[in-house]
């Protein structure tokens, strides 16, 4: 993570932490690299550590989180690598909102034995605030005179790079006796507003359950080939050694896949299957990767809930081919937390791939099941906007099994579909639900789209954006086929341009489809 020999191009800011350092003798570079390592260890999805003179300061407004590590030279002078960057920040045409949306922290390295102790760090901290940036933590002044130097401060200051939220609501949305368990979670920072937008996702780092931790890590994703191969060296029982060696061989790959991946076996279960294996703890640590964050679409608007983030989460469980019950780690952990116990949840806001739609753009939203999560945020935000300005309507197609069991957020949707709500027919919008199991013949969202072909065509002609979220299997293709049919029926010759855009969108079908240059994703855990 040291400096590159040639100036690197700025990377996309989405989801990363940028660490910029200004060093004269190398101490600030060392400290910056430590900050980067601590951030990666703490779960930051992407970290870049760069010298200040290799970063274009005009790109600063495009960043979300930046840590500055600045040393002091001479009589309170900045390092040479900071001078050009500092001159740019002093430009008079940079307004008080130039860095709005940027969160930052400044770490200074200096010696309190000098009069102008950490002056460059203090100056850059003050200037960033003047330009509209938001401080993560008070400026840190590392002191060579202090026995622990900068080390203790870095450890303390890295914590706010996460967003520690408290769970305040854990509500089941489906009926208690229904096969699917879908929850509404509300996470809160009671002391300050949370910086997020509709369209963002929340990444959560779950905890293992205590019994699994005590048994060396019960749930984790391993490289099974590597793990099985090394285990064979520690087996003392000959039949176990032979079986492990077979699993590690080319001939045993299919059986290994059935044994390990298909059954989602844990470290503990594999060790229990081979009791003669006594693997040293350091080997276990090396072979076991860190837990991965799980991402969930945010289902709330910051205009309505500035201190909260809402999530709509399906609690994942399944049976393996040998009828072992498995559960999703993160969703099960969240469901097991009690709002009464002040559980602190480590999480990160992950910026969406596109900015939220403007209030003046009509929307067609198609989201069966938990695919409705981001659209709850869209509707909530537009309803808040409509109270103070003119907004375009929303046409929303929702799908679920049946009305009695899994009509998620029923009251919310119906409220906004009444009178002058953003989903109301009076305002040019609409809310249509496909209950797939409430009648002998299955009804899905694509059938509702075709049934409302006139409304769909009219709103498309008014410049609507179409978002589809949810299942990544057949649903996106079926929805596109329904839209193509509507466009052919209603558009005649004018449909050719629309169909070309639909065809280009076919390549976007991994987890969702978005038409007319909009892309939306759905997540599961």
UniProtKB/TrEMBL annotation:
GO molecular function, one term: FMN binding
Cofactor(s), by name: FMN; FAD
Gene Ontology CC terms: cytosol; organelle membrane
Source organism superkingdom: Eukaryota
Record domain Flavodoxin-like: where: 17-158
Chain coiled-coil ranges: none
Keyword vocabulary terms for this entry: FAD, Flavoprotein, FMN, NADP, Oxidoreductase
Domain FAD-binding FR-type: 160-357
Name this polypeptide is given: NADPH-dependent diflavin oxidoreductase 1
Lineage, broadest ranks: Eukaryota, Viridiplantae, Streptophyta, Embryophyta, Tracheophyta
